[in-house]
Design brief:
The protein is an alpha/beta fold and 406 residues long. The chain is 42% helix and 17% strand. The strands form 2 sheets. It has an 8-stranded mixed β-sheet, sandwiched between helices. A 6-stranded parallel β-sheet has the order 11-10-9-12-13-14, sandwiched between helices.
Length: 406
């Protein structure tokens, strides 16, 4: 089968769409990715990339087409320009395109507008569009960016409705998303619960990170440092535990990275909170695997209570006890798997959660981690979820026999 993947983010940016495309190629499909130049999360085009520089036209067997989209920078105006130009450039590509794919898959982390050129392609060639919702719009715009203008939200709602109407399947990253989108009047037969998967971590021969002290209780947060994660809670809790042998490791980076570093220095927590910077996925998995706890948090908001971030699947797959200052579906998963501690989103509650995890024996924490791994294999393994995606693709493309390309 020939599959067109539309996404603003692709390798070397670290999103699960990379692994999905690679796996689809491994299964015999032909995959072409329409994307931008890598710039996430710092909002600057990566070293070695540029509009006038050659780029990889093929990665791991995946064909890559990059559009000249300006990086988002650090301002809202830059973010708006980034979104708008992607839609315009991708729209031009669709109008010029003469190649027919059997289906279109859209990887939608914000912005939702990534779906517009995909729907245009589907309409032009009469092929199905599978729209994978990772972020709810306009809800995320209201919560994260603080946009309240009814005219702006009205425009976004019309865009979202247009994308949903033009999609053959809407793949929802959580069950809460299914209910939210159904409440918009979208037919339920279009909606599929399809959570994020995680590749099996390659940890053979991996050793404890050198920066992990042997005499402290090490807690890791791995992922994006954005506003939604509410990581100021981590710093406030670190202050409360200043006199305890607890160390926090923040693996990754993001738009709130500089703020968090400044606050860490201001509070005199440099000996308690360590920033590793951006690392490879394999290295991030090593940090998670050898920590005593893996931290996850979200701001207290109904939208985030419906969200299941990809890092949770990683934590489960690595077999590390989860420390979750989160509600809704994320908290439900941790409780169902019995793989960690769930707390309220306050420094006092999180402090108690850390103390509770510390009080468990090493054997008890190891058992928590194993239960998490078992839950991961039953619910979030890549094989399981890509199998389901293939079932949807072949159901929508009956003229393409399984295992054959167009």
């Amino acid at each position: 089968m020939k599959i067109l993947v539309v996404t603003q983010y692709f390798y070397p940016e670290t999103f699960r769409v990379n692994a999905l495309c690679r796996e689809l190629v491994r299964r015999g499909h032909r995959v072409k990715v329409l994307t931008a130049y890598p710039q996430y999360p710092q909002g600057k085009i990566y070293p070695g990339y540029g509009f006038n520089l050659p780029y990889e036209r093929r990665w791991e067997g995946v064909e890559v087409e990059r559009l000249r989209v300006p990086p988002r920078g650090s301002s809202r105006l830059g973010l708006l320009r980034n979104c708008g130009v992607f839609v315009l450039e991708a729209g031009r590509w669709v109008r010029r395109c003469r190649e027919r794919f059997d289906a279109v898959y859209v990887f939608e982390v914000s912005p939702v507008t990534v779906g517009l050129p995909a729907v245009a392609y589907g309409k032009k060639f009469g092929v199905p569009v599978l729209f994978n919702v990772q972020d709810l719009w306009p809800e995320n715009v209201e919560v994260v960016l603080g946009v309240k203008d009814p005219l702006v939200l009205g425009v976004i709602n019309r865009i979202v409705d247009r994308i949903y109407r033009g999609s053959s399947r809407i793949l929802c990253a959580s069950r809460g998303f299914v209910e939210n989108i159904a409440a918009r009047g979208v037919p339920r037969e279009k909606l599929v619960y399809w959570p994020q998967f995680c590749e099996e971590p390659r940890l053979e021969g991996a050793v404890r990170p050198e920066i992990y002290p042997e005499d402290t209780f090490n807690i890791v947060f791995a992922g994006n440092f954005g506003a939604a994660q509410g990581l100021d809670l981590l710093l406030k809790t670190a202050e409360r535990l200043r006199d305890e042998p607890v160390r926090w490791f923040l693996v990754g980076d993001g738009r709130r990275g500089e703020h968090l570093r400044r606050e860490t220095a201001r509070a005199g927590l440099d000996d308690r909170v360590t920033f590793t910077g951006r690392v490879s996925e394999q290295e991030a998995n090593r940090y998670v695997r050898f920590a005593q706890g893996a931290f996850i948090s979200f701001l207290d908001n109904p939208v985030f209570n419906m969200t299941v971030p990809a890092k949770l699947q990683t934590y489960l797959a690595c077999g590390t006890p989860v420390l979750a200052a989160a509600g809704g579906e994320c908290a439900q998963i941790v409780r169902s798997a019995d793989c960690g501690v769930v707390t309220e989103k306050t420094p006092e509650a999180l402090e108690q959660g850390v103390r509770e995890l510390m009080a468990r024996s090493e054997e008890e924490r190891r058992a928590m981690g194993e239960r998490g791994r078992e839950y991961f294999h039953r619910n979030f393994s890549m094989k399981l979820l890509v199998d389901r995606l293939e079932e949807e693709l072949y159901a929508l493309c009956p003229r393409v026999p399984p295992g054959e390309e167009s």
